[in-house]
Amino acid sequence: MIIWVNGAFGAGKTSAARAMLDLVPESTLYDPDVLGGCLRQMLPEKRLQEVTDYQQLPIWRRLVIETAAALLNEVGGVLVAPMTLLRQEHRDEIFGGLASRGIEVRHVLLDPGETILRERIADRQEYSDNSEAAEAARRWALDRIADYEQALPWLALDAYTVPTAGLTPQQTALLVTEAVGRGEGACGIVQTPEPRAETVAAGVLLFDDADRVLLVDPTYKPGWEFPGGVVERGESPARAGRREVAEELGIELTRGLELLVVDWEPPCPPGFGGLRLLFDGGRVPTADIGRLLLPDAELRAWRFVTEDEAAALLPAVRLDRLRWALRAREQGRPLNLEAGHPAE
């Protein structure tokens, strides 16, 4: 298990996490911030200058998952991870990756309130001198408060919030430990193990009366997605598409699925790639739209969108696949793609 102690910079995460080590049996401190420091030593300066925060680096997010798995394999027990996560897509990628390795996550948010947060940042010892570096670090932490407040709506829904105003690190640690013991903060993500070879996946495009396409928001990976999933052994892609729609949305598709695109996704380590098929599932009757059901452990939201609106939600590879699928639907014939574009 990992107890992920989230909160704004200066919320007292590390102090509380250290105090938890005396309260949680067989626990080990796991600070993903250390991985950011390592990357600063290893990555070319040009790459580092392309981001403002090492959390934006895909390699950091991957290392957080892999290091947690390796550390648990080495020491067992419980990892206590004091780490700020303010972008929901980063949370999805990291927690989803941990879930695919069978690692349970308890997500706890420490919230001291903005006034106390600002006071703590001003009083932090590492910011106590008058050097330019200390002032820059203080300003950086203060500037992140706005990011934290912007993230609060989704954080409050995803994590168990512990108000920490006026509490010592020991008192905070006790409240968090008791909450986790009651089962609070459980993420409950259901995710299959990561593929060890190429896979075949089937997605289904469903439309409303305005010809907008249905997208879903997974809890276990960044970005929105089409309903669908990996084709199981001995299963046809069309049958897999119908099965996934039923499991994810509660809709039983009775009509046949028309193939729109076959897209070969090349391997991109650590991913193995494979074939990605998109089918036309037809229009969803208005009466059925109001009865759409989502499995909380896998999907948090659904939305009908135009092609332009999809551009703000889908990762680039999925957006390319959607655009060609819509062209194929207009032309009435399937298209063969490689890496999201027509094969030459």
What's the short story on this structure?
The chain has helices spanning 13-20, 33-42, 45-48, 58-75, 88-100, 114-123, 132-158, 169-181, 237-249, 286-289, 307-310, 316-331; strands at 2-6, 27-29, 78-82, 105-111, 160-163, 199-207, 213-218, 228-230, 258-265, 274-283, 299-305, 335-338, 341-342.
Keywords:
344 residues; six-stranded mixed β-sheet; elongated; five-stranded parallel β-sheet; 2 domains; alpha/beta; Rossmann fold
Please characterize this protein's 3D structure.
The protein has 344 residues and is α/β, with parallel strands linked by helices. It is 41% helix and 21% strand. The protein has 12 helices and 13 strands. β9 and β10 (274-283) form a beta hairpin. The chain is elongated and about 70 Å long.
Layout of strands and helices, then pairs:
Blueprint: E1 2-6, H1 13-20, E2 27-29, H2 33-42, H3 45-48, H4 58-75, E3 78-82, H5 88-100, E4 105-111, H6 114-123, H7 132-158, E5 160-163, H8 169-181, E6 199-207, E7 213-218, E8 228-230, H9 237-249, E9 258-265, E10 274-283, H10 286-289, E11 299-305, H11 307-310, H12 316-331, E12 335-338, E13 341-342
Helix pairs in contact: 1-8, 4-5, 6-7
